[in-house]
Amino acid sequence: MTTNKRGIELLHDPSLNKSTAFTEAEKQALGIVGLVPDVTETEDLQLSRVMMQLGHKTTDLDRYIYLINLLDHNETLFYKTVMSDPARFLPIVYDPTIGEACLKFGHIYRQARGMYLSITRRGKVKEILKNWPQKDVRFICVTDAGRILGLGDLGANGAGIPIGKLQLYTACAGVPPQYLLPMYLDAGTNNEQYLHDPLYLGMRKTRPATADLFSFVDEFVEAVQEVFPKCCIHFEDWTGTDAVHLLQRYRDKYCVYNDDVQGTAGITLAGMINAAKLKGTKLKDEKYLFLGAGSAGIGLANLLCSALVGQGTTLEEAQSRVYMFDINGLLESTRNDLVDFQKPYAHQHARTRDFVAAIESIKPTTIIGVSTIGGAFNQKVVESMARINDRPVILALSNPTEHAECTAEQAYTWSKGKAIYAAGVQFAPVHYNGQTFLPGQANNFYIFPAVGMAIFATQAKRVTDEMFIEAGQAVADQVPSDLLKQGLLYPLQSNILETEIQTAARVAKLVFDAGLARVERPADMVAFIREHVYKPEYKVEATQLSRVA
Q1: CATH of segment(s) 446-532
Q2: Which CATH superfamily is domain 107-259 in?
Q3: Which of 158, 206, 303, 377 has a CB 3.0–4.6 Å from the CB of 405, allowing a cystine?
Q4: Which has the closest alpha carbon to 219: 187, 191, 243, 189?
Q5: Helix runs in 228-263, H state only
């Protein structure tokens, strides 16, 4: 802890506050005698108190509010709590609880976290960014909240998403929290409920034209390059078309990525790799049908095709294995309502708005749900997939839980135990016909924090699709064979930090191989990543105590 802060000012800084863990020497030197209880507790004892207090909460939303309040007062203890039991706490600090938290964000708001940048500040973005106290920001997670999870346009209520996403950088992959900046870019909202809510925290204006929005994002992106030159911009939860087009706009020029496009694709690719492994096939042998053709579906399809090209197919052959179905039916060559990035997947086929009929005609081996329509994979869909496949792969990726296209129990039961299944949210093990199936969670938190750690450690100049393909392969490779045989497509969450260290090391190697690193290449890539990993431990320097005493 190297700081000039003393007394109550130090206690009000969550990155420095140790609460009841200050030693007597620290209390004397830092001028906090009498300002904290006259005890010196261990971190483990503090953690036990947190666990006890959490045990008194009756809902996950209450636990979320408690933990965010803890973060606002004691950052180290917050991360020690979350990292002590990731499988328990990740669903509380992020999905699915974060969805409910965003819906009520203006009502449960306690204090500011991150930055709020309004389009009314056009022309002054650079000066506003300089207001952030940390001058070496390495990641900004930014949203305009145009499409939050499966919940739609939440406006300022979506500010909870970048806050939660960046917590996962630290909790899952050990990226030090002081380098992370969550940001809500306020361009208004078209959500009438929030526009008339007296507790709404955003601009009470409808969203601008796309050209107007993009010109403001241009100013923001360019300002970041000047104010935070080592920063990577993580775009999150923009509307589908904006997500794809903004990524295209900046990816070759700046260090940017979009988790909804590339992170979702990476984790789904990992599931597809392991599903093929279970079946004894290869990715290029499979045929894919997506329900949903927005940014997530297109990003996933594009990354899948890139992976297939890497395995020796042509791009045209890869795209011919991928079909897409949206609200207006199957994407096919006669439709004139498609946007540019959908057209490569519009094949010659009879028109249909019947998903089951599309399955019967196309005969996919894998269906992927990115529709945000809960229950869209109904019994007829699953039974149709089971009829034409010995081992149908069913990936119901939409979240929160109520938006999942089908549950694990439905997939296993309706397919009579044949399905290989994963969801975007966690479901409990399913017991069916004497077997126990372990449904995996295709959650981006396996991917983007590891890619983030690789970017952080290497100071990468750009982010490429190949990094997400490598991350997906690395995650897939870390599922033990005994768990894979029970249908688990993803590693256990209980060991997520080690999983992501190994994944980050493989991505970092790719960064060095591509000549995109701004630091010297290390001899041992895993050790190199470990050197950068944040540990939730209190630290104090003896020299600092003598200096402030």
Answers
A1: 3.40.50.10380
A2: Malic enzyme, N-terminal domain (3.40.50.10380)
A3: 377
A4: 187
A5: 240-250
Q: Give the DSSP letter of residue 335.
A: -
Q: Does residue 409 surpass a pLDDT of 90?
A: yes
Rounded CA separation 401/423 (Å): 9
CB atoms within 10 A of CB 325: 25
Q: Which of 165, 279, 418, 509 is catalytic?
A: 165
pTM of the model: 0.91
- The mean pLDDT value for 207-235 works out to 97
pLDDT, tens digit, for every residue of 427-471? 999 999 999 999 999 999 999 999 999 999 999 999 999 999 999
Reported residue count of the chain is: 549
Token representation of residue 216: 């403001």
Token pair for 297: 């579906």
How far apart, in whole angstroms, are the C-alpha atoms of residue 331 and residue 259? 24
Strands 139-143, 180-186: parallel, antiparallel or unpaired by DSSP?
Answer: parallel
Domain limits, CATH 1.20.1370.30, in the chain: 7-92+544-548
Q: Which two tokens stand for residue 466?
A: 């190949």
Q: For tokens 């869909």, what's the residue? A: 381
Residues of the chain with CATH 3.40.50.10380: 107-259, 446-532
Q: Which amino acid is at 174?
A: G
537 in Cβ contact with 76 (< 8 Å): yes
Q: How far is the C-alpha of 81 from the C-alpha of 73, rounded, in Å? A: 14
How far, in Å, CA of 37 to CA of 46, rounded?
13
Residue 165 designated active-site = yes
Q: What is the pairing mode between strands 366-369 and 393-396? A: parallel
Q: Which of 94, 412, 446, 490 is the catalytic position?
A: 94
Range(s) within the chain of domains with CATH label 3.40.50.720: 262-442
CATH architecture of 262-442: 3-Layer(aba) Sandwich (3.40)
What CATH class has 7-92+544-548? mainly alpha
pLDDT band for 548, please (50, 70, 90 cuts). very low
Q: Please report which confidence band the pLDDT of residue 2 belongs to, taking 50, 70 and 90 as the band edges.
A: low
Return d(Cα 373, Cα 102) in angstroms, integer. 19
Which pair of tokens denotes residue 484?
A: 């894979």
- Is the Cα dihedral 93, 97, 100, 103 positive or negative? positive
94 as an active site residue: the answer is yes
| DSSP string of 499-532, one letter each residue | HHHHHHHHHHHHHHHTT--SSPPPS-HHHHHHHH
Q: What is the C-alpha separation between 431 and 269, in angstroms, rounded?
A: 26
